[in-house]
Amino acid sequence: MFPKNAWYVAALPDEIPADKPLGRTICDERIAFFRDADGRVAAVEDFCPHRGAPMSLGKVCGGRLQCGYHGLEMDRDGKTVAMPAQRVRGFPAVRRYAVEERHGFIWLWPGDAALATPDTIPDLAWARQSDWAFGGGVFHVKCDYRLMIDNLMDLTHETYVHSTSIGQKEIDEAPPVTRVDGDRVVTEREMHGVMPPPFWQAGLRANGLPDDQPVDRWQKCRFVAPSNVLIDVGVALAGKGGFDAPAELKANGIVVDFITPETATTHWYFWGLARHFKADDAALTAATRERQGQIFSEDMEMLERQQLNLSAHPQRALLKLNIDAGGVQARKIIERLCAEEAAGVATKEVA
Amino acid sequence: MFPKNAWYVAALPDEIPADKPLGRTICDERIAFFRDADGRVAAVEDFCPHRGAPMSLGKVCGGRLQCGYHGLEMDRDGKTVAMPAQRVRGFPAVRRYAVEERHGFIWLWPGDAALATPDTIPDLAWARQSDWAFGGGVFHVKCDYRLMIDNLMDLTHETYVHSTSIGQKEIDEAPPVTRVDGDRVVTEREMHGVMPPPFWQAGLRANGLPDDQPVDRWQKCRFVAPSNVLIDVGVALAGKGGFDAPAELKANGIVVDFITPETATTHWYFWGLARHFKADDAALTAATRERQGQIFSEDMEMLERQQLNLSAHPQRALLKLNIDAGGVQARKIIERLCAEEAAGVATKEVA
Amino acid sequence: MFPKNAWYVAALPDEIPADKPLGRTICDERIAFFRDADGRVAAVEDFCPHRGAPMSLGKVCGGRLQCGYHGLEMDRDGKTVAMPAQRVRGFPAVRRYAVEERHGFIWLWPGDAALATPDTIPDLAWARQSDWAFGGGVFHVKCDYRLMIDNLMDLTHETYVHSTSIGQKEIDEAPPVTRVDGDRVVTEREMHGVMPPPFWQAGLRANGLPDDQPVDRWQKCRFVAPSNVLIDVGVALAGKGGFDAPAELKANGIVVDFITPETATTHWYFWGLARHFKADDAALTAATRERQGQIFSEDMEMLERQQLNLSAHPQRALLKLNIDAGGVQARKIIERLCAEEAAGVATKEVA
Questions:
Q1: Interfacial A residues in 6-45 facing C (CB < 8 Å)
Q2: What's the confidence (pLDDT) of residue A346?
Q3: For the domain that residue A271 is a member of, what is the CATH number?
């Protein structure tokens, strides 16, 4: 269950070089991404109208996507514009998708391109500002994308899944506060005067701060429909203002999570950290990215096995505790968006 | 097709250490096994009532099973007894299973725990007696567990599948005698004055006997419902009484086969040999176990490919020859037990 | 969709040694191939009538196929002729298939053996003549066999899939001419005064001809029902008669493609080249076979991914351009043969 008339992160920019398409399924749509002559990303159905070959096995020539089987060439609108020794005017176009490159990500609208609204792509201020540094990657995960949203909206799992890096007992002991605002959900907690866990010890050291002193730690998970979770995270020396402490007394950033359905039970997980200290330290960015990749990969087995359990027991009710409120509210928004989308389709069909 | 109100071997004791649960599916039930504070094995549904995570990915703390996702703790009855910062009294319990550790195996009753009768766990005398030594292991096999019962109740296959170790032409030539006694089937053969095959030559040598003399060899396959096959096997110097020969003139033991359904077309095969000579020779036990593991793995491809053939031809009748009588009778008992179990359920529902 | 009353290449002769059977599925039939005491190939159902074991896991003893599970022995007609300590007269026979070894291939008739007509096995003149040399192999391909027929009846794909070996732009630019004659289709093109691509440069050199001169190149694809494609290919020094040029002025041969359904969406692809120059140069045959294997393996990903695309969009219409005429006509013949076969079965059932 996912809305299709929405923006999803579909790829990282360097996954789509100038000369090669990228084939990727997003929300059950098989799509070939490529760059046109201006370097603008295009997205078309990954299906050659000639004989059904995947266009993504071809190459890009002069900004056109060339089928690797018999040479049909397609433009960014999915229209065939050339094929050796053929008149192509009557060839059926394949579907084109609305796609935008912005803030360091490729955003896809898998639904009706006519409804796509580029101005609703989330504004990622940190992606535009030089005092932030971003590093991240993408995982393929064999579970419903909503299990990943649940995961990220309830960080008590850090204590168990990531016990050697970001987990600490005090997370469980600090009840989260959750509130809903339209298509957004925020669930947050603060921990005062706790010892920093290893990941944040390293962060403090990297920012020139002591790693053996009590800190105030915060986690502010912000869900934005359809499936983005951006989490303010950080530690400040205890009693200096926490989240609002001066920059030189804290280490902080935003955990970036773009969670994109592939099918009903698989998804693409774009993860990363926007770091708000030592932004010009590329080695630190690389090392942090490496470490985060290790930590976040710890969730994979749990999520994929949870999916198998839920698929085996589809009717079974789960608990909805206070710690689950973030995920529960996010799912309600998703359900409402899906219902609205279905109703919209129904309305159109009646009209 | 398998009865669920019955004892099955589910694991070897060292598969369940004190600090880690074991996840294993038995008779279509996904189960987490763990040891409580007394070291007693417990078996609960492998499903966290919080969010459906597999409990078997967690750990054991103070005899409680702790979910590895968000820290819910469960006791041996499947009741949640703790969770950080939560009141757990109203949490639904998950199913608990009757389980016993006895004779060096973990026995599970996958059906209604209220009906479990620990006194019907088979008594394995050799497991209690110091003049016997046991070595064994477990295989996962992708076929109906009844194909393994058939396999073990018709040892003419040794001549073909195990031609270089325990097979010999005289097995085929000695028709078996089969008899049924309640939920038990015995099918047996004797071979008089034959040369021992390589496995038994090694056995004779290990017991200080010549390996180049004719022997009397016996195979007494004992099926016990639901799916245990214990086989008296051995060789004695020819003419000295065979099975009843004095211990110093023979090499003998019991092939142990506990055959536990995982699903309709897969099973866990617990195999081993209880050896009745040189019981204190641990090196011999290890070497024999290694060799038996090699020999028994020769059956795997045949059984799994047989399953594929039968799945492709589900209606096809098979032959039931005299050599098949053991398996045929065992299947009849299984079918009767399943019918009784279904009738019992029906009776209860009427009541 | 494939006719079953037809001859298909099922194996290469050396895939069936004297002592070992070969298990292979042809047109959804699981078959065990073996050689009888005269070395003649036999084909029987790969299903032991005793307990359903695959006969292909057994061995061949004195020209009989012996089951590797319990020793049942079968003759070339699928009749059980022996089993240790058993009377086998009443054993049901398994199905036997008509099979012939001819022209260096094993030909199977997967349908009704009573209808098999060995005289309709294609005559491969090159396989009998000493001035031709053959080298080839077999691939397992996960797509409908008709996609491979399409592939071979439209060689414009060489320009894209095989751009570094046999592809060249002029293929696309030379429209093919297609004609149908009963159960045969020919689609052909000629290219005059073109530079030879690398594969043919090597061919010219091997035949003592210059590799840097313009040539006339030809491709005559001959489809013969049910699924054989034999392609006259070659290059001659330009203006010397092309296909009809004297042998010393050209390098030519026949690309051999026997395309045998395994299931609806998988097939066995027997490929090779019958070379019509330097026929006694075994090293050249080996090197050419190696190179052809590399080139033809370039098609695999495209075909298998095309199959996935078509399976995901079963209703979608494909284009039928002039370059597709060969495949389109071949498919029409296959459809007619299947319809005739179905009608024949219906007629028989009425009778």
A1: 30
A2: 62
A3: 3.90.380.10
- Give the one of C30, C51, C71 whose C-beta lies nearest to B306's C-beta: C51
How high is the pLDDT of residue C344? 84
Picking from A119, A152, A181, the residue at the C-terminal end of a domain is A119
Query: Residue A59 above 80 pLDDT?
Result: yes
Please judge whether C51 and B305 are an interchain contact, meaning their C-beta atoms are less than 8 angstroms apart: no
B112 occurs within a structural domain: yes
Of the candidates C344, C38, C340, C23, the one whose C-alpha atom is nearest the C-alpha of residue C182 is C340
Instruction: Please tell me the distance from the alpha carbon of residue A10 to that of residue B101, in angstroms, as a whole number.
Output: 52
Mutate to test the interface with A, among C144, C149, C157, C160 (most CBs of A within 10 A): C160
Tokens linked to A88: 């192509």
Residues of chain B where predicted confidence (pLDDT) is lower than 70? 345-351
What residues are paired with B178 via a beta bridge? B187
**Last residue of some domain: A119, A137, A152?**
A119
Residue B91 is nearest to which of A154, A312, A319, comparing CB atoms?
A: A319
Indicate yes or no: CB of C68 within 8 angstroms of CB of B161.
yes
Which chain A residue is nearest to residue C157, measuring alpha carbons? A70
Q: B234 and B104 in one domain?
A: no
pLDDT digits (tens, 9 = 90+) for B230-252: 999 999 999 999 999 999 999 99
pLDDT at C351 over 60: no
ipTM: 0.95
- The residue of chain B nearest to residue A328, with distances taken between CA atoms, is B51
A171, A302, A324, best to mutate vs chain B, most B CBs in 10 Å: A302
CA separation, residue A108 to residues A228, A234, A292, C27 (Å):
13, 31, 25, 43
Report CA B343 to chain centroid distance, whole Å.
Answer: 27
Q: Is B53 on the interface with A (CB under 8 A)?
A: yes
Nearest CA to C46 out of C12, C72, C22 is that of C22
Report the residue from B30, B70, B86 with minimal CB separation from A157.
B70
Residue A350 has pLDDT above 90, yes or no: no
Residue B281 belongs to domain spanning: 126-338
Q: Cα–Cα distances in Å, from C8 out to A162, C4, C108, C254?
A: 58, 9, 5, 19
* Domain match, B211 and B285 both: yes
Q: According to the model, what pLDDT value does residue C308 have?
A: 98
